[in-house]
Structures are given as C-alpha cells and as structure tokens.
Amino acid sequence: MTVLPDVLAPGLRVVFCGSAAGAVSAARGAPYAGPGNKFWPMLFSVGLTPRLFAPEEFWELLELGIGITDLNKTTSGSDAAIGTRGDDLPRLRSVIAANAPGVIAFAGVRAGRAALGSSFGGYGPQGVTFEGSEAWVLPSTSGLAVRYWDPAPWFALGARVGERS
Predict the structure, then answer these.
(1) Tens of pLDDT, residues 33-89
(2) How many Cβ atoms sit within 10 Å of the Cβ of residue 97?
(3) Which tens digits make up the pLDDT trace of 119-129?
(4) Helices (DSSP H) in 70-151: which residue ranges?
(5) Would 7 be classed as within a structural domain?
(6) Residue 2 in domain
(7) At 54, is the secondary structure helix, strand, or coil?
(8) Would you say residue 8 lies in a domain?
C-alpha cells in the first residue's frame, strides 16, 4: 500500500524525490506537512510557485510543472527510524523514465545517495542524469535536518528550473 500518491505527469520541469513520507505527512495525507518542514516555503522563496502553498494543495503543483515522489512509498517516519526498509529504486527508475522530467531533485542526502550511488557528489547539480533527467541533490527540508540546512542549492535549482520553463 502506498503511503502518499505520486504527483507525476509526463514532461514536468522538476520532480522532487524524498526518501519517504514523514509520520505527520502520512497522517495528514499530504507531502512535506511536518512541523518545521521548509519544503513549501522554499518552493515559494526560490520562485517555483507564485505563492506559498499549503501541503494539502500538492496536486496543484502539476499545473506548475512540478512533481513529487519518494524512494520509499510504503513506509512512513523519519529516515533514522525506517532506514532503507521499503526503498524501491527499480520503481523510482521506472516512474522517472516513464515521465521524463527535465530535472529530478533528491530532497535529502539519503535519497540522493541511494539513487545515484557512486555518482553522488554532494549538494547541487550532480553532473549526471538519472533515467534521462538532470540530477540534483538538495538539503533536506525536514525540521529534523536543521543542522545541515543550507538554502543555497535550493536557490540554484530554482534558477536552473526557471531557465527550463
């Protein structure tokens, strides 16, 4: 059973891929809904959305050329609590190949490392593709990852994706 649905359509400008839905997101039925999560404010701050969206408005992202998925679609909780249990890299590869977004942005190091393996190169553009999509890794927006927070890669992605529209 899927915790949260994929928000995907062919040819999106960017798809954000987290590791798994957090517990609050699973309970609310909306991605990036945890207290202190910076995902929605960052989309607005970097110019990818025209206003600050509430997590429950996630389907409206498709109209803006933005999608959301997770490496793990069957388990929810913090990365520390669930580890790699439920990760499904073949599923992720398949949905990205089928939808061909311009950019896939891994929202957090764990998802980026799991998907890119030895090609992982820290935050920012990776210089490689993932199933044909330009790959980026961004700092996690989770409130639990605050000590690693750096908005600069998010702003760089906003500029890059804005160039593609």
Answers:
(1) 998 899 999 999 999 999 999 999 999 999 999 999 999 999 998 887 887 878 999
(2) 12
(3) 998 999 999 99
(4) 79-82, 89-99, 109-116
(5) no
(6) no
(7) coil
(8) no
